[in-house]
Each structure stands twice: as structure tokens, then as C-alpha cells.
Design a protein that fits this description.
The protein has 372 residues and is an alpha/beta fold. The protein has 15 helices and 13 strands.
Length: 372
């Protein structure tokens, strides 16, 4: 990669969903700032974000710690020697751990780590790895105060913490509501609830299904769209069958047209039981789609109850169903919340502010490194 006044190597493990969207938004924004970026990540990540980078380097990082991390760290050290970045930016705990090991192989430039998820307080061994990894960072970026609090709760206190919330870009290439509904075979008068999530336990999709079963008692023709893929697909399909709502649930799989799905939905539901922040919630707000979410993790920092959406306790199907029913039956309230939410995203969760704040962290890390 050609040298720049500020060149950055982005490092990531296998990721999808919100973290992958965050990296893509960051790369686009850094390019507009004139900052050259290379990416070191597994092939599936490079396929998604590689076109946005000045250079790509295949790097294997497994989801769980193993002895293979040593080989990955040596490979990363070699990549750093070739790329010669001014800053290394790791996304997530696993990437941070491999960066810390690479620093043992050979000195690294200043390390910045973004923590995207809550840290479970009970995993002593993995938390010890996280403590070591984050201890090598000049700055740890947390996407919410809840994420930062989860680190402190586990006794992990990085030398410098910056709270920089996720952000989203304005939706583009959005199909008109009527056209999208026609494509999905949904009549205009049918109430549609949308859940966009990776199908894993933390996203609470099982609670969304249970809530939909309750919702159907008062709104019998409501349809639930589930956009996402993951290891729990079959279990969730079986749950829908047991709940007697298979005919009212569409499992759409992974989708690239989420803005168009948002446009055709009457309501977006985020039913997470653990959540750092939720890109999906931000996408719904940016799209002007009424939003119901749980109070898991950093969601209450993103969605203000009764102002930009309705926030209910996590793992509570009745509360989710009640909130969804309220917005589906009171469209004036729903549209008022959605309008305020759209304004809030533009004001507080603007992607340009997120990128500028991240660049400031890079420059501060370089300055501290130069004076230490």
C-alpha cells in the first residue's frame, strides 16, 4: 500500500451482520478523508469489503482461541511489515488477541481496537485473553457505554476508552413499498413485522416468534418476515411450527436488500437478549420504519422509549407483542415516533461524525506513540 500521511490496516475475524456493515461504512468514510486503508481478514470478509480498500491480505482468524492463533499472529506480523501502516485497527476481541500476539513477534504500530459486543462476565479464560489483548491497545473504542461497562464489570480497564457509536449511511436503491410487497407476495393491507438478525441465540429471534404468536391473537392477519441466516435456522422453523404460526412467518434467509424490506414493513422488531448497539435498529430509524426493541445492552442508548421507538424488557414475548400491537393499531403514534427517529439518526448517528471521531482516535494514538 502506498504510504500516506495516515495509513491504516484494518484487521477482522470472520464477521457478518452489523460488524461487517460497520467496517464497510468506516472504509468508505476513511477513503473520503484521504486515508489509505488495507484490510487483513478471512476471504469471506475480503469479498465483502475488499473493493473499498487500497489493499487486501487474506488472514485466517478463527472464532475461538487455539494454537493456530500463533500462526495467524506470525502471518499478521509479516503483513504489517509489508504494508507499513501508521495504525493497526482491530475489530472485535479475536482480532485484538491476534494483534497482541503479533506484537510479540515484532513491534506493531499503535493499536486501536473497536469492541462491538458485550463481554460476558463469566468466561474467565477468554476474559483473560481479552484483558491481555486490550492491554496492548493505545485506545479501545466502545460503541456504547453498555459495552464499556461490560469490560469494567469483568475487571478490564484499558488505558484509554473512547465511546464512538455505530452509524449508518442513508438508505439507497430502495424499492417502492408497493413493488417490494408485490415481489414478496404481500397484499398492501396486510400488517408486516420485520426482524433482521443473524439466527443465533443472542438476537432473540425465538422471542420474536413467541411475540408474533401473541400478536396474532389481536391482529390475526399479521405477517412476520425474518431476514437473516445462521445456525439456529432449523430450530426456529421448528419453533414456529410448534407455535402454530408457520403460515404467518416467512424465513427469507440472508438478504442484501434490507432497506427495501424496511420500506415495505409496517414495523421493525429488534428482540435481542444481548446487544452492543444494533445496526438494524439504526437502519430502521434511518428508513423511517417504526421500531420496537428490547432493553438489552446498548439498545436504550440508541432508541429512546416513547420518543424514537418503544423499548420493552428483553425475553418478554408479551411485552414485545403489546408494543408491536400498539404501533400497528395506532399509525399516528407509529409514524410520529418514526419521524423523530429519522431525525435523531441524522443528528446523533451520522456516519460522517463516526468516521471523524475515529480519525481523531488514530491521530491521538500516533501522537502518544511518538512521545512515549
Amino acid at each position: 500500500m502506498q504510504r500516506n500521511s495516515l495509513a491504516v490496516l484494518q484487521v477482522a475475524r470472520p464477521v457478518g451482520g452489523g460488524m461487517l456493515k460497520h467496517i464497510a461504512t468506516l472504509l468508505r468514510g476513511l477513503y473520503q478523508h484521504g486515508i489509505a486503508c488495507a484490510v487483513a481478514a478471512p476471504p469471506e470478509v475480503l469479498r465483502a469489503v475488499g473493493p473499498l480498500a487500497m489493499g487486501v491480505h487474506s488472514l485466517s482468524i478463527e472464532d475461538r482461541p487455539s494454537l493456530r492463533d500463533i500462526r495467524s499472529a506470525a502471518h499478521l506480523a509479516a503483513i504489517v511489515a509489508r504494508v507499513r501502516p501508521r495504525v493497526v485497527h482491530a475489530h472485535g476481541f479475536r482480532a485484538a488477541w491476534v494483534c497482541a500476539l503479533a506484537g510479540v513477534v515484532s513491534p506493531l504500530p499503535p493499536l486501536v481496537v473497536t469492541v462491538h459486543n458485550l463481554l460476558p462476565p463469566s468466561r474467565r479464560i477468554s476474559n483473560a485473553c481479552v484483558r491481555t489483548a486490550l492491554g496492548h491497545a493505545h485506545t479501545v473504542i466502545c460503541i456504547t457505554h453498555a459495552v464499556a461497562g461490560s469490560l469494567a464489570g469483568a475487571g478490564i480497564h484499558p488505558r484509554s476508552v473512547a465511546i464512538i457509536p455505530n452509524a449508518v449511511e442513508p438508505p439507497t436503491n430502495v424499492k417502492p413499498r408497493q413493488q417490494m410487497r408485490a415481489d414478496l407476495g404481500l397484499p398492501e393491507g396486510i400488517p408486516v413485522v420485520l426482524v433482521v438478525a443473524r439466527l443465533v441465540e443472542a438476537k432473540g429471534v425465538d422471542w420474536a416468534l413467541k411475540a408474533h404468536a401473541v400478536l396474532r391473537r389481536s391482529i390475526p392477519n399479521a405477517i412476520l418476515l425474518l431476514a437473516g441466516d445462521g445456525p439456529d435456522m432449523r430450530a426456529l422453523q421448528a419453533l414456529a411450527e410448534r407455535l402454530g404460526i408457520s403460515d404467518a412467518v416467512r424465513f427469507l434467509g440472508a438478504r442484501q436488500d434490507v432497506p427495501s424490506l424496511m420500506a415495505c414493513a409496517d414495523l421493525c422488531m429488534v428482540a435481542s437478549v444481548s446487544e452492543g448497539q444494533s445496526i438494524v435498529a439504526l437502519e430502521a430509524m434511518a428508513a423511517g420504519t417504526p421500531l420496537v426493541c428490547t432493553d438489552a445492552g446498548g439498545l436504550p442508548e440508541t432508541v429512546i422509549h416513547n420518543q424514537t421507538g418503544l423499548v420493552v424488557p428483553a425475553q418478554n414475548a408479551t411485552a414485545l407483542a403489546s408494543a408491536a400491537t400498539a404501533l400497528l393499531t395506532n399509525r399516528e403514534q407509529a409514524l410520529s415516533l418514526a419521524l423523530t427517529a429519522k431525525q435523531e439518526v441524522a443528528r446523533t448517528f451520522d456516519w460522517r461524525r463516526m468516521v471523524a471521531d475515529t480519525v481523531a482516535v488514530y491521530r491521538a494514538a500516533i501522537d502518544r506513540s511518538n512521545t512515549s
